[in-house]
Each structure stands twice: as structure tokens, then as C-alpha cells.
Amino acid sequence: MDVLTENFSLYAKGFLGTLELTVYASLLALALGFVMASFRVAPIGSLRVVGAVWVNVLRNTPLTLLFFAVLLGLPRFGLVLPFQLFAVLALGCYTSAFICEVLRSGINTVPKGQGEAARSLGMSFTQTLGAVVLPQAFRSVIPPIGSTLIALAKNSAIAGAFSVTELLGTYKPLNEMGYSIIWTFVWIAVGYLIITLSISALFNVLEKRWGVAR
Amino acid sequence: MPFRGWIVCADLDTDKWAGQRMAVDPLIELRDVNKYYGNLHVLQDINLTVGRGEVVVVIGPSGSGKSTLCRVINRLETIESGSIVLDGHPLPDEGKELAGLRAEVGMVFQSFNLFAHKTVLANVSLAQTKVRKRKKEEADKRSRELLERVGLADQADKYPAQLSGGQQQRVAIARALAMNPQALLFDEPTSALDPEMINEVLEVMRRLAAEGMTMVVVTHEMGFARSAANRVVFMADGKIIEDRTPEAFFTAPESDRARDFLSKILKH
């Protein structure tokens, strides 16, 4: 218990770091994943290719490698940003590939006739997707998107290795100060649980509110 | 019964029908249309003209290509060769223009395809606001009028799953009518319905026909074909075998294929 009370501000800083990474990267992943999922079901072939390449490159690259590529690679091309922003980029892009596939499988659960009916009424591809298909797909993708975002929260620990302030990284200074490694990690775990259980709770509410199969 | 255009025969004996064809105002024209599913030649050199105000019923055994014929008219299915002309405009490729033409041709599906996440009223109003750019109040007002017309004004706030099949199909017809289409395509509109619900849908369709709506109806309802159609198109194996008045078709079918088909379905 001492380790928490005596170093509360250190823990709080780390906790806030992880929270920020999770929230910003989630927003980026949801936005990018949405765009890429639209690309993957678009009637235009070149957009489908872009979507497929995006998903396959990012989903099949180890996240650590992606962090290296973004944090060390991009500055070489003259793009210098704060490390935290780089970490959000890496995490967000990586997770967007998974979000994209989740959304696409959700789109596939909507019967084909729904889209056909919308198109037969003269609605455009964007209108069909936005007003008819996605709102129905949304209901079935709530649980898997929750899982993906929880994974993102935990993946954010990798950013600590690239000198971004986050929760897992707090063990290093605490360890050097001589605190028990077990209690240090217990409180770190509690911090992660607070974030991941909050995501679970949020998605439970969303599912109750929207996930009704009519 | 109001004027409903002339009876035309698109691809049979030219001389016999030449006089009438001059007078017709063609709304839907299919010329030498061919479509394949892989190796399967589902539409073979289809020629069909539907005049404004005409009601054409397409019948035939399953797998004869009649549903596909219906679906190529608003390009839910693409064709390999031939041309489709709607109201003088060739059917364009995917895009804004195609969407514009689709709005002019309503479609009613076998499985209703009402938007499951929207109320009955929102189902009928959605495309009015999105495509016709009507204001929401204006669209809802028109939707309520149309629901009244199909006898479902009191169901406006329910969800599709809360309605019976026949009610859902009538909503689907109202939804198609809401766009003020020039023609309606019906793809087996009663095939998924319980027998006792078939009539309420056919009644709405009969009324539309009487009001002069241009209709292409794929159906197995021979009674409807007899009473409401100007022409019966009989299809088998991807070809149009006969294209005649219902009276002539049902009393004296010319082809063996049609005779065989009729003998099987009219027996019981």
C-alpha cells in the first residue's frame, strides 16, 4: 500500500499517460478504421485495394516494429513530432486495421437486400452505407470493438519503451527506489483494470442501448 | 378503366403489331440483353418494350431468368451485352446518374427489405429526404398519405418486425411510391407471404395498375396476371418464349413450353 500512497503523483502521471494514449489512439483507430472499412466495401476497385493493403500491412506488422518505424523512421523524412503523438499514430494506425475488419464483418451481417432496397430508391453509395447499412452493422460490432479497444489500452504499454510517459513505465523509477516489485506491479495492474473495465462498462451500456436485434 | 397505353409486342410478329407500336410511348426498352452467371446464360437476347402505363406480368418456371430480368432493369444486376433504355436515357454505369435513374424506377422485393432499424414512417420518408431532398415534415406528410393509401396509417410508428408479411410488403410499396417513380418493378412480391396475406398486397397492386402506373411484375399469381396485366411475358431458360395478351396466353398458349407450364400450375 505504501508504494501507492508515497508515489501517488508518479502513478497518477503514468495512469493519465496511458489514459491519454488510449483515448486519442482509440479515436484515431475508430476514424481510420471507419474510412478503411468504407474503402473495402466501395464499388470502386482502387479504393478496395487501398483498404486491403492498409489492413494487411498494419495487421501483420508486430506493434513494436511499427513503433520503431514511426518513431525512428518518420523523423528521417523530416517529420518531427512529440513522442507521445508518434505513439498515438502508431497505436491508432495499428488498431485501425482491426477496427476495419470488425466493421467489415459487421457490414457483412446486414442482409444484402437492405443495401439493394436503398440503392433501388436512388440512394448513393455513401447514403446507403451511412443511413442504412452502418447503423445496422453498428449493433453487431459493439462487443468486438470493445475487445479491440481493450487490447489497444494494453498495447499502449509498448510506448513506455520509447520514453513516452505511461503506466507500465512507472515500475522503473519505483524499482530503483527499492520498492517491492510485486506491490509495484499490483498497483500498475489495478490502473490498467480501471481503464479496461471502464471500456467494458461503456460498451455494455452501448450494447444495452443500441445492440437490440429488432 | 383509364387509358393505359397500347398493347405492344416487342419481339414477335412485327407486321401484326406495327400499327400499335407506332402509338406507344416506350418507357422501358431492353435490346438484345445478355447476362451470364459464370457459364450459365441466364438472359439470352432479351428484347422487351414496356410502354408508359402498361402492366407487364412476367411468368415462367423457376430459374428461367424472370427475377434477373426484373433486376437488370434498374441495374441491381449488370448485363454483359445489349442495351437498356429508361425513358429515352440509356442506363448509365454506377454513380450519381444511375442513382438518379433508379429513383425513377421503384422496386418491390420478394423479401420486402424494409430498413429494419427504422420505423415504418421513417422507411417511407428516408429516401424522400435523402434523394428527393424534401424537408422532413413534407416527406412525413407524403409518407402518411401513402400509408393511408395502402391501409397502414395506424402502423406508422411501428418497426418492420412488428408487422405481418403482407403489411410489410404494403409498406414497401408505399416506400417505392414515395419517390414518385415512373415505373414500378415487382420481383415476386407475394411469394414470401402466407396465402391469406397475398390478396391484401395484390389488391394494392391492382389499384396501382388501374391508376395507370407502369408496372413490370414477376409473379406466380395467375389471377393477377389475368385481371390486371396488359401483357403476359412467358420466360423459360433465359429466353422470352411468348409475349401476348393474358387472354390469348391463358386460353391458347402457342408454345409447348408454355402449355406444359400452364398445365402444371393450373391443375389444382
UniProtKB/TrEMBL annotation, chain A:
Q: Which residues form a coiled coil?
A: none
Q: What is its main location?
A: membrane
Would the keyword DNA-binding turn up in this protein's UniProt record? no
Q: Where in the cell is it found?
A: Cell membrane
Task: Name the UniProt key words of this record, in alphabetical order.
Answer: Amino-acid transport, Cell membrane, Membrane, Transmembrane, Transmembrane helix, Transport
Entry's Pfam families? BPD_transp_1 (PF00528)
Q: Which residues cross the membrane?
A: 21-41, 53-74, 80-100, 181-206
Topology in the membrane?
Multi-pass membrane protein
PROSITE patterns the UniProt entry points to? ABC_TM1
**Every ABC transmembrane type-1 domain range:** 15-203
Spell out the family assignment given in the record's similarity comment.
Answer: Belongs to the binding-protein-dependent transport system permease family. HisMQ subfamily.
Q: Which NCBIfam families does the entry mention?
A: HEQRo_perm_3TM
Name this polypeptide is given: Amino acid ABC transporter permease
Organism for this UniProt entry: Streptomyces cirratus
Lineage of the source organism?
Bacteria, Bacillati, Actinomycetota, Actinomycetes, Kitasatosporales
TrEMBL record, chain B:
Q: Pfam families from the entry?
A: ABC_tran
Q: Which GO terms describe its molecular function?
A: ATP binding
Q: Which UniProt keywords apply?
A: Amino-acid transport, ATP-binding, Cell membrane, Membrane, Nucleotide-binding, Transport
Chief location of this protein within or outside the cell: membrane
InterPro entries attached to this UniProt entry: AAA+_ATPase, ABC_ATPase_HisP-typ, ABC_transporter-like_ATP-bd, ABC_transporter-like_CS, MetN_ABC_transporter-like, P-loop_NTPase
The residue ranges of the ABC transporter domain are 28-262
Which stretches are annotated as coiled coil? none
Topology within the bilayer: Peripheral membrane protein
Q: Where in the cell is it found?
A: Cell membrane
Q: Which family does it belong to?
A: Belongs to the ABC transporter superfamily.
Any idea what this protein is called? Answer: Arginine ABC transporter ATP-binding protein
> What organism, scientifically named, is this protein from?
Streptomyces cirratus
